[in-house]
Amino acid sequence: MFKQITLKSPQKESIINFEKLIDSTQNIGESLHISIVECLVNCILTVDGDRISLEKEDIVLIKSASQLILSGFEEPVTIRIFSEDISKSYSYNFAIMGSSPILHDLLATKQNEKPLYITFRHLSKSITRHYCDLLEIFNSDQLQNDVTINFEKQTIFGLLFSELIRNYQQTVALTTSQFPTKKFKHASNETIAGAIFQYIVANIRDISLERTAAYFGYSPNYFSRLCKKIFKATFSQKVNEVRIELAKQMLCLSPNSIAEIAYDIGYENVTSFYKIFKDSEGMTPKDFRDKFLADNHLKEILKK
């Protein structure tokens, strides 16, 4: 299934019922539903309440969700949604049995929790764009109900998955993805990292090593060693990294003051926030926000 959505006014939103994209005639035990959202211009995609700021040709791979909301900046916004019920065949196995444990764990999980999705950034855009162009062609009305075309379409999906995971350690945006969060026992390090990132994001204002370790069922000492093994950095270093990433998103998307943003992400002292942010990004939070608003002509829109 292919759907292109264009939002002509930045003051409006487009609401998509994600569950209607699923082919209810498929046998769940024999197929896997996957949707790919390709952003054609800078936009905001909200997945079950999670706001994601996307740049042109970023991709969100969604396994489960209830509702998507598309909103934009000043110019008209267009996204392409490709949805497929993929049979567990050659092209499916070719995609998930590759070199990306994080994608394998997401697609293989039988959990019913929502939402589950991965955001990909900094892609080799000409390659992913051409695969998406091919998928649009294969989803045209004239080419439906053809067994050979369906096989070719699933193969293109497999190739697109392979391209997404080719450099997944650089392209997967951990702070704007939702991974399975249950037992760690048999999960890959990448999935464990994703679950830890999710917990940090959800509890960023008063996060602590002790509470995080207890949530995942570990002693603080063991959990500290686990973080060093997975992240090649300490827990506190990863918390600071997440805080800066969240600050950047909030400076772009939220009308809140810089002091409010600093408090929301766990900085009691706004002066400390300014220093840490500038050390990380080479500019102050105010300069970062002003640059983003100027680049997207958003100063007047954000004031409304």
From TrEMBL:
HTH araC/xylS-type domain: residues covered: 194-291
SMART domains: HTH_ARAC (SM00342)
UniProt keyword terms in alphabetical order: DNA-binding, Transcription, Transcription regulation
Highest taxon listed in the record's lineage: Bacteria
SUPFAM superfamilies with a match to the protein in the record: Homeodomain-like (SSF46689)
PROSITE patterns, sorted: HTH_ARAC_FAMILY_1, HTH_ARAC_FAMILY_2
InterPro entries: Homeodomain-like_sf, HTH_AraC, HTH_AraC-typ_CS, Tscrpt_reg_AraC-type_HTH
Keyword Transcription regulation carried by entry: yes
The keyword Transcription regulation is assigned to this record: yes
Molecular function terms, GO-annotated: DNA-binding transcription factor activity; sequence-specific DNA binding
PANTHER family the UniProt entry points to: ARAC-FAMILY TRANSCRIPTIONAL REGULATOR, HTH-TYPE TRANSCRIPTIONAL REGULATOR EXSA
Protein name according to UniProt: AraC family transcriptional regulator
